[in-house]
Records
---
Amino acid sequence: MKPKILIITGYGVNCEAESKYAWELAGADVDLVHLNDLIENAGRLQDYAGLMFIGGFSYGDHMTSGHVFARRVKHHLQEELQKFIDAERVVLGICNGFQVMTKMGLLPGLNGGYFDPKVALMQNECGCFQNRWVELAFEQTSNCVFTKGLDRMPLPVRHGEGKLFTPDKKIFAEIESAGCVACRYVDGTSGKPTQDFPQNPNGSLNAIAGLTDPTGRVFGMMPHPEAYLFPENHPQWKRQKLEGALPEHGSGLQLFENAVKFLQG
Amino acid sequence: MAERIEIGLKSGVPDARGRGVVGKARSFLGLGLSSCRTRDVFRIDIELKGREVAAIRKAFADPVIGRSAIGRLSPPPFEWLIEVGFKPGVTDNVGRTAEVVVADVLGRKLGPYEQVYTSTQYFLKGGGLSRDDATRIATDLLANVLIQTVAVYSPEEWSASPIDESVPAIHDDTEARVRTYDLSGSDDDLMRISREGILSLSLDEMHAIREHYKRPDVRAERQALGLPAQPTDLELECIAQTWSEHCSHKIFAGNIRYMDENGDEENIQSLFKTYIRAATEKIGENIDWLVSVFTDNAGIIAFNERIHLAYKVETHNSPSALDPYGGSITGIVGVNRDPMGTGMGCQLLANVWGYCLGSPFYDGDLPAGLMHPRRIRDGVHEGVIDGGNQSGIPWVRGFECFDDRYIGKPLVYCGTLGTIPVTVTGGPSERKEIVPGDLVVMCGGRIGKDGIHGATFSSEELRQESPAQAVQIGDPITQRKMYEFLMEARDLGLFRCITDNGAGGISCSFGEMGKYSGGAEVDLKNAPLKYEGLQPWEIFLSEAQERMTLAVDPAHIGQFMDLATRRDVEATVMGAFTSSGELKVMYGDRLIGLLDMDFLYETGCPTLEMEARWKPPEIQLPQLPKAGSRTKNLLSLLGRLNVCSKEFKSRSYDGEVKGLSVIKPFVGVYEDVPTDATVMRVEYQSNEGVALAEGINPFYSDIDTYDMTASVIDEAVRRIISVGGRLDRIAGLDNFCWPDPVQSEKTPDGFYKMAQLVRSNKALYDITTAYGVPCISGKDSMKNDSVRGGRKISIPPTLLFSTIGRIDDVRTVITMDWKHDGDVIYIIGVTRDEMGASEYHRMLAEDQGEPGHFGGRAPGLDVSMALTWYRAMNRATDAGLLKSAHTPTVGGLGVALALCALGGDLGADVDMSAVPLDGIMSDDAVLFSESNSRFVVTCTEEKASALEAIFEGLPIARIGTVNSSGRLTVSGKRGRRIVDADLAKLRKAFKKTLWNI
């Protein structure tokens, strides 16, 4: 059976088309639901196997990115969300969606505390929005259902506020020890996590690009897997093709396929 | 009194915004402060009870990194504090978002005048700044005093001052009044009325209006309806708006007597009809993919059996000169509404931008009242970055063109490509129809005084007193909400017709739509206002942003309004469409304006009579350097503003949202070399795509605008061909930006400038018809002069020609970067000695201290030859023979070879003696001439003979081989080595000029 995914739209999030395509390509059914319609009928969330907070500029990133969208979701949907997570469903947040989830406290979700924000995604170290391709390495020990079995992946970043930060060093240690880090920015040649711009495009601490909750079912990342579904999305695809190394699909699809596989048991 | 909340970062949390201020203060103003911490201030002009304000404070701040206080948050150590807020009536997008949070906390909807106002604090430290220094930082870096307020405090002043809880609300209880204009006076009186009212009406036009109101039938009707005999303010304002150069393109519609250099005369009745539309009509006889051209907000062409494409490029020059950020964000968000209001409403697929600016390093005199070009550049980029990124539309093309004649008026081009299903709710999607009785509905943002006189103002040269009202700030989020709502409403069949509100606001859109039914009657009292105190004519003319006008069948209005409410979009029924032939404007139950549609749009405005005289200019040549190495010259060329990398700023634009990109704006091993054209898919389920490119070169205008125009069209077409686009499926957009070309006291060289315009149009007709590339939409902006500080600065005649081409299968496209060691390099086309106004000649002239000595022959165009080469290129790409293809333009073959090498990070050994030439030429000319229609391509050795076979009988030559030496070496005549450059050096030269700037 095809798992059903709900994508929340409205108020400036804008990656609905490619996110829908990604899930469909991976074998899921997708409904795009406007935030107002979901708030009006919050119970319908439980009809779905997965929820996605997509990328974009909810409320223009005003009052810091994701802040207002997160407040509204938490204000109106907290109970339903808790129920949804408790019922073994999956939640994905990409870019602005990751920011929203972090602001809400869904991530890192240490000790099951889902609505208590612990970290911030703040303004990039370079001071401005960046759109460029980066190299990611997935944590092999992570139990994130989206990234299972993945090693390295090139993906685009497109954000102004992606630096994972907290002034509280203890929190970082906890995140690391609880296995909440799902992927990091790495140097393309050495494969090692890096703090150097532009390989690490935002100066994120410990080069963290994505977080999972301890269950592995709630996951968010700054880079955009839904923007690498076609092999021709890769900036070097012409070279890959000449060398016979062009993949059939963009690698970003693998995260969605992983989630669908998980949901299909 | 409002509640004040201040939010800052916890200590130890880095402040990237503050660090940006430190960096800019140093590089821009030479002021070395050591730190800057920033704070956000919210003033909440809402009645709050008990613990509500505490709950709002908590809801505003980030608990992880932020701290906040009601009233004042204790300041960090500082020497100067700058607080920047908005002037009354200026759009405050962050404030608008904060209102959403407040509404959630209060658990109720806010009233229209319950508002939140924001400002920003900058705490500066170090550098021994004086008050003047701090004020300079405030006014030259942080704030635009046209629209923002600035306060500077020392620590003592700050602690002694009361907590500022005032708000920049507009409290204007002026009663609505309708005045009449007395047009019975002298000509001087008429011109005074025009000038003082910023109406930009000419004497001829004032006379035409006076005569119209004198007509017995008009008088009789007005008397019967109780209207004054003289025009009301609303009527005169509406006529002025409609007849403005900005809205009615009088120069392109007027009559011109043109005299060429031999004294031969010709009468031209409308440049637009004679050249632009005639060319498209002629081409249209032989093609079947033009769906809607020149009639709607954007041109529509067929793409496949499912969808059409709509494309439009606009300029937003005058507002960007006054407020670069606000002007440009309004430019991009505004042009989005063009496809959105085309046909039954298009989805938005991609954005393009381009700026013509003064040098960011300009160090000459700057007339009072003009901003430094670097500040304009920063603001313009920031505005389009925010507008495009927040709208979720990827950028696909961008360019910057630098010349110090743009310091008076920057040109800010913004364009949008849209898609629309071939049929929408059972009918052709390009249809525009309205049935009398359909309701006039306005939706989107509220109306304020913003942008009043925008259209008439942009039709004037920039004067010192140009009104601040002409500045607006776009709000991409309000628009995005409206856009999604409209797409939903479209597919549900909830409206019959749609258009956007641009220049002239509803006075233009109601009238334009009224043409489809034959009239409209509206009540301005229904209009949703941002604040009280607007006069009816101001409501009618306001250019407040993010608004669309629709025609809704009364049977659907309930469903339409219900959906609008659920999507949080404000929609208002303003009246109904009629077939009376009149635009009837009420204010409550009072009739305040009656305009005859025929007079207003068709017959009323007198035709301009203009004169043009062409005399080719005489321009001296620079001295060519002695024979020898040109390595240094090539390095210098690569670093020049109009050649060098524009990547640094471009990286802040989102180019990949939607995930459809195929050839991105930057290509190559390091993704740092600009592509000739970008390519993207249009739908997820198909491998069909579009290629987008453009040509612009105002420098050739100094020699002959005919050559300029031919060259930019050729460049824009050739770029599409180079990536694999089909010659028979390319469409163009023309954007003319000109200095005022009408001879007058203030434009004593008008005859010449008009001749430049005529010649440009002639070339446009000649070249587009020869290539079969129809213009599907276009725009002109004809008053790009500044007379500030007693100095007139006019832009060079500038034509942006944008192209869109069809790609049958995106998997077969070709990029410009070299691919492998051993690949063979070919040059296709003929190189001529055409160095006039070339980058090389201009560089030599500047270096020799005679910047005006850039003469020579500008690149010409042999269209019949070019066509055979382009068709052969199409065959070569179809056969899959090419590994790379690039179009040499500015900087000639030398720069072209360097860019291909940098793209591939591969060297080459090139022999220029093989290059097909027209006559005997110097090495300099072979290397740097900018002759049109040429390509540099590579292929494998195995495919070389097949490529040569396709180009048999055409000018093609093998000029070298790609290698992995890491060096580009070029030999010229008699085997002399003329270039020998290390790739790392070439890359550094190409990238360093605008890096971090």
Note: Chain A is about 25% helix and 20% strand.
---
Amino acid sequence: MHKALLIDPAKCTSCLQCEMACSFENEGVFNPAKSRIKIFEFEHGARAIPYTCTQCAEAWCLHACPVEALTRNPDTNAVEVSNDICVGCKVCTIACPFGTVNYNKSSGKVIKCDLCGGDPACAKACPTDAITYVDADWTGYERMQASAVSGHGRPA
Amino acid sequence: MDYVVIGTGPAGVVAAETLRRSDPGGKIKMIGDEPEAPYSRMALPYLLAEDIAEDGTHLRHGSGHFKSLGIDVVQDRVASVSGADGKLSLESGGALGFDRLLIAAGSHAIRPPVPGMDLDGVENCWTLADARRIAAATKPGSRVVLMGAGFIGCIVLEALAARKVELTIVEMEDRMVPRMMNATGGDMIKRWCEGKGVSVLTSTQVESVEKAGDALKVSFKGGEGMDVDLVVCAAGVRPNIAFLEGSGIECGTGVLVDNMLATNVDGIYAAGDIAEGPELITGKKEIHAIQPTASEHGRIAARNMSGYPTHYRGSLSMNVLNTLGLISSSFGQWMGVDGGEETEVADAGRFKYLKLAFRDDVIVGALALGLTQHVGVIRGLIQTGTRLGPWKDRLMQDPHRVMEAYLVRTQGSSYGY
């Protein structure tokens, strides 16, 4: 059974611990700008949405890559970037209709959520359970993902 | 079922792999004319920049990938196709029959009709062989003229700059990347490149190239000439349709296909750079010689070839470019559509620009300079035709709120908005 990130924006206090944890886990620095998960605030901070890749079945990024630098990890179901293979062309950043693959200027490659190999730092860092890592067939997750991909359909 | 795929680029490779998944027992032959493993032309600039080795340009990395899928990769050229009999002839001699044929033969780099374009020292940058010759001919300080500041010219520019050559780029039109950027964006890119030490000559035509001792003398129309060591020509590409003459397959600039990627001849499909197919917004037939279209075309064509009818809404033109550190992107109908509205914010001093084009309250195109975070949501909004409702006016006022608009309009319901 694959697990997935379950996001409950109602519980998000916009503390940015997830961004810090993600950046530290993946980049070795506390720099929210390098986080693969991002908190978007609305209504002047009254509401916040943690936002990251849902590891969508369509994997538009993976199909757009010219050199097979993006592959799906069969253990975690995450689509991962191979830094050794990525040439930094950035086509995946414009092809992903969710905007969850970003160019990282300092490495010259792209970055995206890879579920930290199956132990996501954001979920561990979140003090309010706004981000949890749960079985992927959890009803709420399915509902969220169905909504997230609605209208996007297949990469066609 | 006997499948033949002409072409070993991204469209051909994705199609062959999709055919294998849809039809485990089918016979699949993929024909390419270059003596290389299937590779990505898009990766060639990174090879020239010495970021990667040759195998880094390969489309697939596993050894024996195609063999393990039972895909027979053949090095040859198709001389002609007889659509009515389901047969094609090969340049090496012999013929092949097929039940289903995919034409994914790509395009070739053209050279403008200028005297001297056939001289040694004038190269395209289109094939691995071209890249090897350019690499051998350049070292730091080499004098290079690059003809063409289109999208391909600009990624080659980046690679040549990484080789530390003394670079002049010449463009006939009045701005850089004229087909991906308007004057505002194109002028910013030009000014940025000039600031990085590249000489950019827009509205300039090369009149001739001549031998001048060990060098080449490049003359410009109505201006001075210059002596260089190498001329790289990036003046555009054209679909490889010559071999289809007499095939009965209907062509415009490329091979004309419908929403199933089918040609006018039963059982024959086309995909990628060679296919002239429906565009997403207007439905008009266009050629989008870009990686995402090649991959989508390849997959959809293969589904249809193997008996799984799959409708393609159309391709969306999109490009992302890095010119010496300035990142630009363009999407769809960025020039606007009849009866639509447009909005833009430009900060020329900081090389930032964002333009959105709407039809009603739907985004149909965009241009961006200096935007690298969450840029894909622009594609998401265009691709899904998301109605922006009250957010349209907010974006007209401030296009930078596009991520907010995206989250609220596409995901709002699951978050209680």
Note: Residues 325-415 of chain B form a domain with the Enolase-like; domain 1 fold (CATH 3.30.390.30).
